[in-house]
């Protein structure tokens, strides 16, 4: 994502002098958690911050305090893990994976066969980046698409982080392949070295939150660390990510960023507290256990500067902490009367002493991990509801219209498990406007059970407690719940609900945007774009099939001059042979549509058979005054630029809509209430994904479109255009490497998404052949005296037919071997002969058998087959919907219950889908009316829902004329 902050390379950065004091947690596997508590002495907490200073010191520190028992445990675990390796039985089809391994890793040792399972290899090595062991499937000569070009670096990184328990490895373990291609578990393969270490493993945490397998999460973390883009990973690294889609990858990336933010803020807080001398062993553990920003805030709030300090801190300053701890540990010897100091505020009476002890105990309870885990688990089993009501202030002095908008939520209650995302966002908005009051209702049963558990189990005193001390303990537990734990739970529930609702809203915005961007282009037509208006007239722009502006004009259709202007429009349509009118859906859209529909019905434009369509003009006005529009159409009035934009949105929606900031396209819900950073990051990523998957012709595309290709940015796109203007068209993908600022990584990311029109290049090469020869001679003669001159780009000027396909250059070698295997050649790419040859071989050998022969993976082979068989100029958008062209109009008043209409989906939300049925107001299909049976079986769907641009047949269920609302039922998707 151009948007999301990309992670730095995974080599650990040198820490600054401040960072040197960061407490680094030992890299223990999950199996050793209990062991850690046994062998790591408490006194070590103070020493731990010095651990990362030197690697050698790190090793010694870990090894020295270990008892023989602990060492035995380590060995036992290691042996157990080796057993796991040996017991994994790969099916016959995976034999090639193991047989190919020594070739790339150059181990020089003989490979063990599957039958020698019980034997543990002498030299073993973990390589979890190839958790799916796809690297082993590469060919001998060149890597396949499933192997990153920086494979050696990855190996180097792994060797530094693989060893469990941070001690010198007594054995290296080489993982074998699981049948599904997963990383072998518990081998450190899923261990990822993070800049800021916490008490939890980032891979496990990521897996739990996103429901993605740990081995996939580990691979994704490494892929993102190496600055791979989402389109590249989704298309060319399928084996490493278990075929996840781009949306899922984006979710993992965002969650990873959130977890890293928590880790970073935690360590910043630790540094701050350490400098202030407030950091204790217990506090350090509590901070390092935090997984969310809410938890971190809860733990660190009392220690923030500027805070008066909590009641517990004030009691500790009075010297009551020993009394509180004694009440739990040694109550028989506790005498609270001995703490009374008549002249000291807070210690003058026994009640004040008891209150101080109570505050300290409450603080201890509220920050204890086990206590918080228990209450959270208890809440999961009980009915917790969120309630909203009309605020008393707003009912007296509020805008009636605003208050009516939230009518549904004036007396609203719903379980937090069942509440919908849009309801949460609506409640939050009402609360921000001070129209609603919101509270989370936790039943009293939860409090009673929690208090009983605390007194009788978790915080049960070690000795008999006197009645007065028992009362203090019970009051402490109730105080902890009411004053500290209940507000924390409410904040956590609200924060989680809001966060989930925001994410869903942003994801839905992304899905809608993708559907809109991938609308099928209408090619080969001359179009008239109309930007409707009343007083200032309707702006017209006629554009050619190649998007050139042929004519612009202004007509006044709605000021009594309609008939005279009709002559002008007819003359223009006949002059440019234009039979398609595109009307923007803004002000005066209905009147303009009625005007054109009336003329079409009267056959006014004969002999032309004119049709029209309505298109969203969201963002057109903003674009028309932008620097990009001024640069593209310098001599055109901004009002006329919007008409050009409206016409081009039908001709090539993707190329036109990328010029507009995604959030202005307006296909979302509550877009101003969600995190703007997350929204921008997601939408920019969706644009990058769409542009990359569609692909661009490097020799004709605009700079704006080019900057959205994976691996490119504004500077690189500008450099590519400059190179093109200076040197002429690009002949092949290899020439991209000559562009300034385009290094190996950028080339790897963008190469597969850039296309070359072979006919155009062949013509160009044949025309320039003689010139090139003489130029080469001149260059050679002129360069004789210069030893360090750069090799001229002319050396690589040979067209490559594979450049017009989606096959990545790193797989060209496999593609050529596949072509020779099926008896085809590059001239047949995209022809029916190629399809027949491929089908014949695949039917005979099978996809897996062919992949095995070529020493590659099934995913890579499938991509090669797609690239070779797709017809020239193939566009993935042909599967998506085209605009809905019409000749007549229906009025709002014409609608009646039971009427069956066709329409186009305008926007999708969690509560339903808005459909434009041509009456000027979109109708709503409630989500309950959208069932799987009604959706098209042919089209592959990402979710049970419809997206913008899809054509549907609907039935009118209800028409509310005063409120201008139409309720529809979905009959079928067209």
Provide a concise account of the structure shown.
This protein has 36 helices and 15 strands. The protein is α+β, with helices and mostly antiparallel strands and 974 residues long.
Task: Explain what you see.
With 974 residues, the chain is α+β, with helices and mostly antiparallel strands. It contains 36 helices and 15 strands. The chain is globular. The relative contact order is 0.07. Mean pLDDT is 75; it is low at 1-188 and 774-795.
Number of strands: 15
Broad structural category: alpha+beta
Task: Give the strand order of the largest sheet, numbering strands 1, 2, ... along the chain.
Answer: 6-5-4-7-8
Average predicted confidence as pLDDT: 75
- Note the main sheet: 5 strands, mixed
Strand proportion: 5-15%
Work out the radius of gyration: 34 Å
Bin the helical content.
40-55%
Q: Which stretches are poorly predicted, pLDDT < 50 over at least 5 residues?
A: 1-188, 774-795
**Total of DSSP H or I helical runs spanning 4+ residues:** 36
**Distance separating the two termini:** 34 Å
What spatial form do the alpha-carbon principal axes imply? globular
Quaternary class: single chain
Which SSEs are present, and which pair or pack?
Elements lengths: L32 H7 L4 H4 L7 H9 L4 H20 L7 H11 L45 H11 L40 H9 L3 H12 L4 H7 L9 H31 L4 H8 L4 H8 L10 H7 L3 H9 L20 H17 L2 H13 L3 E6 L1 H5 L3 H6 L5 E5 L5 H12 L3 E6 L2 H15 L8 H51 L9 E5 L6 E6 L5 E7 L6 H14 L4 E5 L4 H13 L9 E5 L4 H5 L2 H6 L5 H14 L1 H5 L18 H19 L1 E2 L5 H4 L7 H14 L16 H7 L3 E2 L2 H25 L29 H11 L9 H14 L1 H7 L4 H12 L30 E10 L2 E5 L6 E4 L24 E10 L4 E9 L1
Parallel strand pairs: 4-7, 7-8, 9-10
Antiparallel strand pairs: 1-2, 1-3, 4-5, 5-6, 11-12, 11-14, 12-13, 14-15
Helix pairs in contact: 7-8, 7-10, 8-10, 13-15, 14-15, 15-21, 16-20, 19-21, 20-21, 21-28, 34-35, 35-36
